[in-house]
Amino acid sequence: MKNLLIVIVVVSLFVLNACAQKAKDVPANVQSTFSQKFPTATKVKWEKENDKEWEAEFKLDGIEYSASFNIEGTWLETEHKIKKSEIPTLVKNTLDTQFEGYKIEEPEIIESADGTFYEFELEKGKLEIEVQIDSNGLVVKKESEDEGERDEDDD
What we know:
The chain folds into 2 domains: 21-78, Phosphorylase Kinase, domain 1 (2-Layer Sandwich), CATH 3.30.200; 82-151, Nuclear Transport Factor 2, Chain: A (Roll), CATH 3.10.450. The chain has 3 helices and 9 strands; from the N terminus they run ααββββαβββββ. It has helices at residues 2-19, 28-37, 89-98, and strands spanning 42-50, 53-60, 63-70, 75-81, 103-112, 115-124, 127-134, 139-144, 150-151. The termini are far apart.
């Protein structure tokens, strides 16, 4: 029984290690941009999202972040979870009026070249939606988790 447990642990570690990309696999320009943008980042783990994008998961000032870069090394976005108490008033007002009765799950802040956005998974009964709201309280993306439908608000 003890040997079986050891084998399971070793195999699990191997699988987890195989899933994560080594820093040596990450293009130098991506690593360079990351180092310039986040010079004090710790516990950096890289993952190749697809043929055109790399994602770094890391800690900065005790907070867990993820940042995406294209293969040319251009920073795309950074995101991290926030507490409900950190949701700005304009964003909170939009949630309260346009999504009344929904439970807020996993609030995150996303920063990109296009601005700062707040992303939420919202639940109401069996209905789940993902919503992105800008700093002014405007809904910029609304996607149904159940149906995979996407609504873009043009207001």
